[in-house]
Each structure stands twice: as C-alpha cells, then as structure tokens.
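FAD-dependent urate hydroxylase
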Amino acid sequence: MKAIIIGAGIGGMSAAAALDQQGIECEIYEAVKEMKPVGAAISVWSNGVKCMNHLGMGKIMDDLGGPMHHMAYLEGFSGKQMTQFSLAPLVEEVGERPCPVSRADLQSRMIDWWGRHKVQFGKRLESVSQNEQGVIATFADGSKAQGDFMIAADGAHSIARDYLMGHKVERRYAGYVNWNGLVEIDESIAPAEQWTMFVADGKRVSIMPIADNRFYFFFDVPLEKGLPQDRSTVIKDLKGYFEGWAEPVQRLIDAINPDTTNRIEIHDVDPFSPLVKGRVALLGDAGHSTTPDIGQGGGAALEDAVVLGRCFAASCDIEGALRCYNDARLERVKDLVLKARKRCEVTHGVNPDETNAWYDELRNENGTGILSGLSKTILGGPLG
C-alpha cells in the first residue's frame, strides 16, 4: 500500500510518520524547492507534544522547546501586571509541557528525521484525479505521481481542498495583521522563562522563549486588509502602532531585525465537511485553516496524523480508514477553528466592550480560569 503525501510541513511529515508506523509506504512531495516556513515560531501545546512523542519524534521537542514555565498579561501602556501564574498545574494535569519552538527548526528536524533525500522538492500540486485503483497527482512541472491514496497537507491555500469541495474555497480575513520574528533573550524586555503578553486597545504584543536563548515575538494590530507593506518601514510602523506603550515594548521594537521579521495578514477558513473524498484526505491547514489565537494550528495537524495512523491500524480498507479519520476529526477541528475565531474577536477588539470586559477579567485572574480553558482544549485531543 502506498500513500502520496502532499506537503512536507508539520502536517505532511507527521502524517508520513504515522502511516510508516503502520507499514504503509509514503512518497512525500513538497511545492517549494527549499523550505522557508511562514512564521518565525510556533506554540506547540501539550497535546501536540504528546503527538510528537507518539510518532517517535519526542526528542525533537525536547531539543527545540523553550523553557516556558510561567504566563503573564501586562497592560500595554503602563506595563502594569494584570495577572501572572505558573504553568506547572497545567503540566501536572495534562501530563506534558507546552513547547514553543522555531518553526523552521521544527520542520527541518522533522524532514531530517524522515530522510531529506526521500522528500521530493519543487513539486507543486496542480490537479488531482482518482479512480477505484488509486489517486494521481499532477504537478506544475508536468510530472505525475500515483498511489493508493493521498494525504493532502498542502496548507491554507490547498489545491486538494478545492478538488475535494468542487470549488475554490475562500479564506476569511480575521481583521488583523501579525508581525513576528526572533530576537535574543533580554530580560529587560521580559522574563526568560515566561510567556509575556502586553494587551491594550485590541492590540497584543507577545514574547515567548524558545531554545538557543531566543525570544519568539509577535505584534498584533487590527487593520484593514491589503495595506502596502515595506520591510524598510517595519520599525517605524510598529513604533507608530505602539506609540506610548510600555518601555519593554519599545525595547523589543528596537531589537528586531526588519529583514527577518514576517508580516502576515491573518486568515482562517469557515469549517466545512467532509475532510475526505474517496481516497483523498485533507490534513492540517488544508482541512482546518485557523487563526493562531489559541495556538492550536500545529497541534491540530499533529492530532490529525495520530488519528490517521490509528484508523489505518484498525482497518486495511483504504476508504473505510479514511472515513474513520473524517468522522473522528470533523467535530474536533471545527471546535478548534471556531474557538480560535472567538478568541481572536475578543483579543482584537471586534466588540470593544467585550474586549474591555476581558481586560477586567485578567486583572482579577489568578490563573485558574485560563489554565482550565487550556486544559480542556488539550485534553480534548486523541491522546487525552
């Protein structure tokens, strides 16, 4: 039995690992000639780390995961602490720590774990066809690949998703722009073992530790879509958007390198069904593109892979196993997309009264409420 896997990102590589555990041959095709991930880093919460352990790649998380032991919210302008608490109770309850990691390092290590020479780069999917015998992928360079089934992990702009749905699926602009990158840890900006967030006026500045003495940072600003962008004005732009904010935020802006700072207009896709058509299944962002507001994009893809492997372990019937995968994942990924969308609206001031009420809640929060929400999301995964 042979699977064609489209995409060598987190979803595609984890799918290959899961299917390989079941003795299924995998051929992996990646559109780009060289992996250059969008986004500097990724927050892999405990459910995603459990999946990496299950798939045999836990050491990667051990090596790359930053020492994130506390969480804090601060008022953006004054820098006054709204709440601060330990993540230890969460780790104890769910049985694994969260691991913020460099996205580039994570993808590179996953590809190396599989075998870089076994991934075919420069293969951009152009069309999909299938019959009772299998699936054919046609690539932009005119080449084709044939297998018994396809796992399409070809991202938020998925060609396979359009094939499966029978029409082009439109992405929804979430209403804000995100700037992100990496800087060397500086404790005058934030503690080295804490996820620190400054919030005010529907904007957010986040600082999170990853391995190798680096902070992953991002700035969120509600803005209209399609505004011109220029790397040469990144610092000036951020200084304008965060004028009057606390001194640590100003230090962070001064520390960033515009040449390695990403600017992304954040989108998601309305939940849809099914995730499977015959012998073609969507996985990761192709099946459930979400905003990053609850940090579950990567974790959901890893969960997909674990469930996919379980379904093939239970059945040698390809279409039956893929239906099993669809049925097991549909409600879970819908819940994650909508939960992230709701959090996005509250965080980014869609309803200012609701956002201000959230700020008031934070000032009275001892961590119990936030940890409870995180725990519920984590424990809803396939590995508990």
